[in-house]
Amino acid sequence: MIEKNEDYRKLIKKHLPRSTTIKNSIFAFLSGGALCFMGEWLAYLYTRLGAEVKDSYLYVTLTFIVVASLLTAFGVYDKIARYCGAGTLLPVCGFSNSVTSSALDGRFEGYVSGVGTKIFSLAGPVILYSTLFGTIYGVIYYFVTR
Amino acid sequence: MRKLIKFQNKNISFVSHGAVGGFEEAAGPLGENFDLVDKTDLFGMKSYEMAEGEMGRLCVNIAMTKAGFKPTDIDCIFAGDLQNQCFASSSGLYSFGIPYIGLYSACSTMTEALLLGASLIDGGHIKCACALSTSHNSAAERQFRTPLEYGGQRQPYAQWTATAAGAFILDGEGQGRVRIKDGMIGKIVDGLTTDAANMGAAMARSAMDTIYTYFSLSDISPTQVDLIVTGDLGYVGSEMLRDMLGEQFPALVGRHIDCGTLLYDRSKKDVHAGASGCGCSASVLSLKFIPQLERGELKNILFMSTGALMNPTGVLQKNNILGITPLVRLSSE
């Protein structure tokens, strides 16, 4: 005898563990905030070292990308991200991790058919839609400011 | 019609068995019982896919050594894993030259293998069969989910694919104490969920269907069964099954145990809802239940590996995940 569809759907709902949204949100807020603080501090450091203010933020982005990529390669990033969630996913380091982890996964299949085809498997949508909407925004901006 | 397969040969028995595991499994509560563990999870191979094959080969080798068998003593091997086209099983086993049947039924593979091996022995077609199933966390995550080093949060009800293998050698002459008495082929049941992380929900319905059908066809009553062992429902699926059992067979609620909840220490490892994978039920059967049956601590168990029949394409297309649960009754009486 198979449970009725209605009954079984109710049963699934009943036993679905309570979402840990509040805990996850707090962790994401604190870790994301900490990363932003680090970013500001780094930007200040770069200006003190002689960089232009607008360039210093570019250097911060690059630093985040490189550090996240290295942490991914050493197998540390996923352990941090397990707790931080959106706090480490949303900043550029999450993007860096998705590219590096995909590339690492392809290493068994060679540099072209492995790393080459897999590297943007997760980052692909981000690249596609940021390019697309960037272009749309650019066109609108062009006509509005003309 | 779904039939109860009652074996005419009363001496279909487990001659020997072996279990091989990875790093996380070795650290779990059953870790000390493994015949072999490799803390690198690579088993000396260059990729995780090949490592899974090697794990299966080592496992069969251990079972053969314990029985004093050569590959030529085994007439047929039933084996399966989670990789496309059972790649791990074929790549691992080819060097033995044992006639091979590949099984691809997700995590329900071990019970299917035992059922088919026992059936061929019962029919008198072969004398000795081997059943093997393997799963490798790193190979399965790569194929089914995200890259290994991807930093994401898993759902609290998600399960962890076990890096483990279990192999069993069956004969028809009663060399071992534990016998396979009867069994039932699984039926495909709609798990009514599209969430690939909620494997417990995808499979619990089919497990309940198999238990209900078994007791309506068999002359065994629920009180004659010491344990109902499910494969990898995990903590969430187990609670769902017990809820359903409570309505139909209250006597069975306290006798249900799930292999997925036995492999890891929940307090130490962040495995959320427990273990899954073909190697989960196979290794736990070898690590815990066959030894308990051999010692006479258990007399009758229903061993039901549960399978969630899904693949990444089907999940992305938002299809419901189907579940399947075959069954064998193991007895030491």
Describe this protein's structure.
The complex is a heterodimer of chains A (146) and B (333). Chain A has helices at 5-15, 21-48, 53-73, 77-84, 86-89, 92-105, 111-118, 124-144. By secondary structure, chain A is mostly helical. Chain A has one domain. In chain A, helix 2 crosses helix 3, helix 3 (53-73) packs parallel to helix 6 and helix 6 runs antiparallel to helix 7 (111-118). The longest helix of chain A has 28 residues, at 21-48. Chain A is extended. Chain A starts with a helix and ends with a helix. The model of chain A has no long low-confidence stretch (mean pLDDT 92). Chain B is an alpha/beta fold. Chain B folds into two domains: 4-171, Peroxisomal Thiolase, Chain A, domain 1 (3-Layer(aba) Sandwich), CATH 3.40.47.40; 179-331, 3-Layer(aba) Sandwich (Peroxisomal Thiolase, Chain A, domain 1), CATH 3.40.47. Chain B contains nine helices and 17 strands. Chain B has helices at 23-26, 48-67, 87-93, 109-122, 137-144, 199-217, 234-248, 278-294, 312-316, and strands spanning 4-6, 13-21, 36-37, 76-80, 100-103, 128-135, 160-161, 164-171, 179-184, 189-190, 227-230, 256-258, 275-276, 300-304, 307-309, 322-324, 327-331. In chain B, strands 1-9-17-14-11-12 form a six-stranded mixed β-sheet, with helices on both faces. In chain B, helix 2 crosses helix 3 (87-93) and helix 6 (199-217) runs parallel beside helix 7 (234-248). The two termini of chain B are 29 Å apart. The chains are: A mainly alpha (146), B alpha/beta (333). The interface between A and B is large, with 39 and 37 residues.
Offer a few descriptive terms.
heterodimer; A: 146 residues; mainly alpha; extended; B: 333 residues; alpha/beta; Peroxisomal Thiolase, Chain A, domain 1; 6-stranded mixed β-sheet; 9 helices; 17 strands; 33% helix
In short:
Chain A is mainly alpha-helical. Chain A contains eight helices and no strands. Chain A has one domain.
